[in-house]
From TrEMBL:
The keyword Transmembrane applies. Residues 385-471 form the Moybdenum cofactor oxidoreductase dimerisation domain. It comes from Halosegnis marinus. Residues 461-490 are annotated as: Disordered. It comes from the Archaea. It holds the Pfam family Mo-co_dimer. SUPFAM superfamilies: E set domains, Oxidoreductase molybdopterin-binding domain. Residues 221-366 form the Oxidoreductase molybdopterin-binding domain. Residues 461-474 have a biased composition (Basic and acidic residues). This is Molybdopterin-dependent oxidoreductase. The chain crosses the membrane at residues 12-33, 64-88, 95-114, 120-140, 152-170. InterPro entries: Ig_E-set, MoCF_OxRdtse_dimer, OxRdtase_Mopterin-bd_dom, OxRdtase_Mopterin-bd_sf. Keywords: Membrane, Transmembrane, Transmembrane helix.
Length: 490
């Protein structure tokens, strides 16, 4: 028991310290050992488990994966520290354990992350924790005695100190909020217009989302220097094209409102949001490369994500580099992401680095895992806000039909027996002066409370009058469908 305690406590403390040291140097980036191992866990997780995590656990699934990666990293470094302690005892040297431990952590961490700087931080912190333990010991071969408690507490304090120092340092290296000062000019005017058009219902997100949802395959978003970024058009083309950030942002651009919806969200979920994007036409690059009449494209990203869909879908596609009048945030694909109007969010690849033109169909990242979300987004009317005032009830939400547009939302307060047209927000208008082709609309409906529990059902009609399908389907494999319903008290 004494030997176990004299090894387990300092090894665990060193393991935790090593993770904290890695985080202190690089923050929550792909170079952080915890995010690297999280990605490895996700890569080997069976598709059925991934589907469960997406459709049932939602964001919690991603958080658990990250926590698992961090725990795995601490266990890995702790095992190396235990090995170093054993070496120190065998050699009868207090100095051996910190040296061997730091060297082992540095070597293994570098192999795992390919990031020597982050590995150096991990090694220094783990070695420091082992050095504290050695300093509190009477000798490397000294048995546990009345000073055992002092050594245990001191070693634990060293590990906690590493976390206390490493965590705030690492957060300083996280993604900074994009800022170019005050948003002015055309973007400011369009955002103000969107705010004025938003319906005044409490709890209803405005037409330009307060917080835009995120779904990534990587634990940490890539951190890409715009000056080093480039986008290549490759594959079945007449000549490959490569453009840098300055080249792309010098192209004629426009301000467009566009909505993105996650294929894996619940029917009445909240992974559907809208922003104002500054973007350039993608078709210009395809034409320059000579993409011809090929069938498909594969979009590839810096985080190794890839997605395939028909070449024709790119005719209205865009490359966005600003969001709501500010530089594109790191978490949303900086420096450049794809916007493919009317398609599920997974198609709108972030951190875009390559457009590969294909002569034959292929499968994308999620298709290889059983999903089929490359097609046009399903029409939906969501019910998210409920207000009560003096015997009257107001229900409200958002409706979205991709590029097909929304012409009406109908509400039933008696479980679908009768229907009433809801009030719609005015369409958003981009810099071209035309109603946004791929943006949601808000809806609201006020009615007198029936005084008892009742079922509210909502459905949308597309611009041509087509009614949203009633039959419900789960998110897997092609996105959720059906009318949203909610039981309310009178």
């Amino acid at each position: 028991m004494d030997t176990l305690r004299s090894t387990a406590v300092p090894a665990a403390a060193a393991g935790v310290a090593g993770v904290a040291g890695s985080f202190a140097v690089v923050g929550f980036t792909p170079a952080f050992v915890g995010s690297t191992l999280s990605d490895a866990v996700a890569l080997v997780t069976p598709g059925v488990v991934v589907t469960f995590a997406i459709t049932v656990l939602g964001d919690l699934g991603k958080q658990l994966t990250v926590a698992g990666g961090v725990a795995l990293a601490a266990a890995l470094f702790g095992s190396l520290a235990a090995f170093a302690l054993a070496v120190g005892r065998a050699l009868g040297s207090r100095a051996a354990a910190p040296v061997v431990g730091a060297a082992s952590v540095f070597g293994v961490a570098t192999l795992v992350t390919a990031a020597p700087l982050a590995s150096l931080g991990a090694a220094a912190a783990a070695g420091a924790a082992l050095a504290v333990h050695a300093g509190l010991s009477g000798g490397a071969t000294e048995p546990v005695d009345s000073g055992a408690r002092r050594r245990v507490l001191g070693t634990l304090a060293a590990g906690l100190a590493a976390v206390g120092i490493g965590y705030p340092l690492g957060t300083l290296r996280g993604p900074a909020a994009p800022s170019d000062g005050e948003v002015t000019g055309e973007a400011r005017a369009l955002l103000d217009d969107a705010a004025a058009k938003s319906l005044p219902v409490g709890g209803l997100e405005p037409l330009v989302s307060d917080e835009f949802y995120r779904v990534d395959i990587a634990a940490a978003p890539p951190a890409i220097d715009p000056e080093e970024w480039s986008l290549s058009v490759t594959g079945a083309v007449e000549s490959e094209v490569d453009v840098g950030y300055d080249d792309l942002t010098a192209m004629p651009s426009s301000e467009v409102f566009s909505t993105l919806r996650c294929v894996g969200e619940p029917l009445n979920g909240r992974k559907m949001d809208t922003a104002l994007w500054t973007a350039v036409p993608l078709a210009d690059l395809l034409e320059r490369a000579g993409a011809g009449e090929n069938c498909c494209v594969m979009l590839r990203a810096a985080d190794d994500y890839y997605e395939e869909f028909p070449l024709a879908a790119l005719e209205s596609g865009m490359l966005a580099y600003r969001m709501n009048g500010r530089p594109l945030p790191r978490g949303h694909g900086a420096p450049v992401r794809a916007l493919i109007p009317g398609h599920w969010g997974e198609i709108n690849v972030k951190w875009l680095t390559e457009i590969e033109v294909l002569s034959e169909p292929a499968e994308g990242y999620w298709e290889n895992r059983g999903w089929h979300g490359t097609g046009p987004v399903n029409t939906v009317a969501k019910l998210h806000a409920v207000e009560r005032d003096d015997g009257r009830i107001t229900v409200a939400g958002h409706a979205y039909a991709g590029t097909r547009g929304v012409s009406a939302v109908e509400v039933s307060t008696d479980g679908g027996a009768t229907w009433t047209g809801a009030t719609l927000s005015e369409p958003l208008v981009g810099s071209d002066g035309a109603p946004a082709a791929d943006a949601w609309r808000q809806w609201s409906h006020e009615y007198e409370s029936p005084g008892e529990r009742h079922e509210v059902v909502v459905r949308a009609r597309e611009a041509d009058g087509t009614l949203q399908p009633e039959d419900r389907a789960d998110a897997f494999p092609s996105g959720p469908t059906g009318w949203v319903s909610r039981e309310l008290r009178g």
